[in-house]
Automatic annotation (TrEMBL):
Repair polymerase that plays a key role in base-excision repair. During this process, the damaged base is excised by specific DNA glycosylases, the DNA backbone is nicked at the abasic site by an apurinic/apyrimidic (AP) endonuclease, and POLB removes 5'-deoxyribose-phosphate from the preincised AP site acting as a 5'-deoxyribose-phosphate lyase (5'-dRP lyase); through its DNA polymerase activity, it adds one nucleotide to the 3' end of the arising single-nucleotide gap. One of its GO terms (molecular function) is exonuclease activity. Residues 5-319 form the DNA-directed DNA polymerase X domain. Residues 54-73, 94-113, 129-148 form the Helix-hairpin-helix DNA-binding motif class domain. PANTHER family: PHOSPHATASE YCDX-RELATED. Residues 344-423 form the Polymerase/histidinol phosphatase N-terminal domain. SMART domains: HhH1 (SM00278), POLIIIAc (SM00481), POLXc (SM00483). Its cofactor is Mg(2+). It comes from the Bacteria. This is DNA polymerase beta. Keywords: DNA damage, DNA repair, DNA replication, DNA synthesis, DNA-directed DNA polymerase, Exonuclease, Hydrolase, Methylation, Nuclease, Nucleotidyltransferase, Sodium, Transferase, Ubl conjugation.
Amino acid sequence: MTPPDKNTVVQVLRNLSLLLQLKGENAFKVRAYDTAADRLSGTPQDLGALVQEGRLQELPGIGQGLAEKITELVTTGKLGFYEELKAEYPPGLMEMLQLPDVGPKKVIALWNELKVGSVAELELACRQGRVRELKGFGAKSEAKILEGIALHQRAQGKRKLLGDVLPTVEELLTRLKAVPGVVRVSPAGSVRRRAETVGDVDLLASAPQAGPVLEALATSPGVAVVLGKGESKCSVRMVQEDLQVDLRVLPDEDFATALHHFTGSKAHHVRLRGLGQDRGLKISEWGVHRADGTKLPVPDEAALYRLLGMQYIPPELREDSGEIEAALEGRLPEDLVSMEDVLGVVHCHSTWSDGKHTLEEMARAAHAMGLQYLTVTEHSQTSIYAGGLKEDDLKRQWEEIDRVNEALPGFRLLKGVEVDILETGALDYSDSMLERLEVVIGSIHIRHSMNEDQMTQRLLNAMDRPGLNILGHPTGRLIHEREPYPVRMEEVLDKAAERGVVVEVNGKPARLDLKTEHVRQAVQRGVKLVVSADAHKKEDLHHLLFSVATARRGWARKGDILNTLPAAQFVSTLKALRTT
Ligand code: DGT
Ligand code: CA
Ligand code: CA
Ligand code: ZN
């Protein structure tokens, strides 16, 4: 079992502070938990090492008692004290604490005076005007609480970014996998299909006995509320992201068909069921049955597709967008790009512009991921807000790049830039400067509010500039934050094909730009792509995963992705593709 990570421990400490306040513990004791949470989240030191070496008490604010609790939590995955305290109150109280304008004092009053123990009960009490009668509340604060509840519900309804959810999913899966008797575990649903946003998380496990596996989820650190628990199912809501997680546990012989069912998508399924019927097979979450009721053994998903006389369809493609026809005709690509194919990362920033880590730190981190190169692409001079570089700064940077490359044999930083595409489509550096670089990404960062004609023309003009190799995050969207700017993507992609400009599939979880549909249009035109991290710190290098997922969902094959080539070939192909 992997121990709970630092974030989880910090969250448990904060929850404990709130629970102790509910219990009426003195302020001094309560504050100790908040202080410990602050110290822990603020230290750059590795939590696992601190625990193992018994050095927790070296952190100011962490005394013996707290050190013991943290050690118990990290080494056993559970903290008895926390579990007992949590069990004393309705789980909904923790959720009430997440409301704006509702602190521990108010929760205590609401619980003690009105026996209000959940957000739903609180809403009802407010609507009945019972809350305003309480000491310390009033009509105004009642109205404010109602506003807060509406906000809270909207946040819950909001789909989460895959990138924000995946680390939690992986932590839970590791925990479930470690339960004795467990045979297989997997995510299902939109998480497994690598959709850009997810509504909730679906998990599946196989084991002879469901009980202990369900219990492992229900008692996971980071669980705010157990929403329901039955014989084979358990649903919880995590504190982080307000994320709902549904787990199903079944005997291993039913795993593959259930996994397939709960992976979806619904649209993909409906079509497959129809195909099954044509062959006299009934496909359901319970398995594949003949008309006479006999159940066919289905050891894995590939076997299910074989029964239907079609190619295996990877989860990322299961959206009923042509994959079923292709698989029936045997023309589904079998070499979709995968993480193993990618040899280098494109698009990173360092302390030279708005990044957090030095070039050497970025290089070492990429090297440690098994990659061979990283394109250094800082912002250009017009992006002042992002520490954009002047041409002279860039030349000084090359000296540092050379030094790092010498220090790290077997790995290469490539000299590049993410040059701003200005309002007219001109680029932010001179042609002679751009010519000297190995990789030039051109992106729009300023003046988003142009109309469709202007914006399309701006991008077309930029691609006419000989110095541009890669068009960066072409629509500028930020999921949940900013709409894509209006642009006729097909025209842009036609131009990219004509000019030999490569297009980025930006892997930053809120960007994913190109998005899936655009990747597909690009691939159909023979436009080459790069998968990128848009990393501003070491940890972001893993964004590559989301870029690769988006590329796969857009049916991109290994050969469509330029950074599956070794460094030297990557650079020479970038240049050779360009037509003027
Ligand atoms: P989400 O959670 O909105 O991001 O999307 P999904 O795809 O994860 O959907 P979810 O969690 O409601 O259900 C998980 C999978 O279970 C879904 O992809 C397919 C399967 N499923 C759920 N409801 C139905 C249904 O009514 N019919 C069929 N055929 N499958 C269903
Ligand atoms: Ca789901
Ligand atoms: Ca679900
Ligand atoms: Zn950018």
